[in-house]
Amino acid sequence: MTFAALSEIRSGLTALSEQGLLRQRRMLQSAQDARVHVDGRELLSFCSNDYLGLANHPALAAAVAQALPEMGVGAGASHLITGHHTAHHAFETKFAEFVGLPDALLFSTGYMANLAVVTALVGREGEVFGDKLNHASLNDAALLSRAKFSRYAHNDLAALERLMAASTARSKLVLVDAVFSMDGDVADLPALLALCEAHDAWLLVDDAHGFGVLGAGGRGSLAHFGLQSPRIIYMATLGKAAGVAGAVVAAEHDVITWLLQKARTYIYTTATPPLLSAALLASLQVIAGADDRRTHLRELVMQLRDGLQAQGWELLDSATPIQPVIIGSNEATLAISSALLEQGILVPAIRPPTVPVNSARLRITLSAAHSAADVALLLNAMGNA
Ligand SMILES: *Cc1c(COP(=O)(O)O)cnc(C)c1O
Fold first, then answer.
1. Would the pTM of this model clear 0.90, i.e. be above it?
2. CATH no. for residue 78?
3. Which residues line ligand 1 (CB under 6 A)?
4. 125: CA distance to ligand 1 center in Å?
5. For residue 368, how many other CB atoms are within 10 A of its CB?
6. CB 208 within 8 A of CB 176
7. What is the pLDDT of residues 65-111, one digit of tens each?
8. Could you tell me if 135 and 252 lie in one domain?
9. Contact residues for 207 (Cβ-Cβ < 8 A; gap 6+)
10. What is the pLDDT of residues 300-323, one digit of tens each?
11. In contact, 151 and 159? CB cutoff 8 Å
């Protein structure tokens, strides 16, 4: 018997390989940092989302070491059975307090948190609206909810307004990346909230790349804009600037209680190890006091942008640590990424379908763990590439 389905995926892999789209993993042999060991080599890395350099911070590591004998390794059950530990609870309480929202709920990943919020708030009778450059998890969440899903061109709020005005759905939900993960620009959250108020909709703000980086004390994009509303569901991921893992949703108390009843990605999964919550509590404290790291990071962003602009590269309008350099073709992007690698510098080539066709790019991400000298090395290498 031939196995047609397996032959089909084999030709699919060949096709991806021929188009330069075959994804492969690099193996890290060190902790996440500005310099990492990969395949026996030390490389200067501009790829991580560890914006504040906390992934390997001694205060977080010490919190884990202290928690381990007390809490053990695994949570052993889901939160609603016996997996909910005082460490999880303490983090949720501190997080809500930190971002100034009434209540918070911890999830295993940002992907799962987005699935939870969207499927718990809208169903078949609802309509979900999303920016075309939103993260994949928000799009998947909309599909899973079975609501009508209407996407609008990146930042085109006039188009969003037309869609919302035309909608007859019982419940409406707007999804947005506060900082767009592949372009680095910041969404106009005040205008989005005004639209949600005018059309009686919820607003889910995915702050994966804003929490820890933007706003006073790193409180994130809502603090950056000074926004507050019971319509806002705030989602922060904890594996990026916070340096650990997981995600947290903060909102009105009743919204959080509703998620606890309805969110399948919360209910039907094992709780994260409580020692991670101990690390997260330590991380919140470091984040709050990390103005020096944020100032340093902003200075690195300016240094990089000025240098790349002087060399004539095409940048996007981003003031965040996500600095894409648009190249266009997949092959050229890969070639430049390889040339940088030869010089000991790791910058990922981001290709479709992660970004639109013909907008392949180098995605440089900066971290407070980088020094001005590191950015100068990158600029020099980009000049040679
Ligand atoms: C990384 C990311 C997520 C997913 O978060 P994880 O915790 O990594 O699952 C969601 N939304 C955006 C915008 C992201 O960049």
1. yes
2. 3.40.640.10
3. 109-111, 114, 135, 137, 177, 181, 206, 208-209, 237, 239, 247
4. 27
5. 25
6. no
7. 999 999 999 999 999 999 999 999 999 999 999 999 999 999 999 99
8. yes
9. 178, 179, 214, 220, 221, 222, 234, 235, 236, 237
10. 999 999 999 999 999 999 999 999
11. no
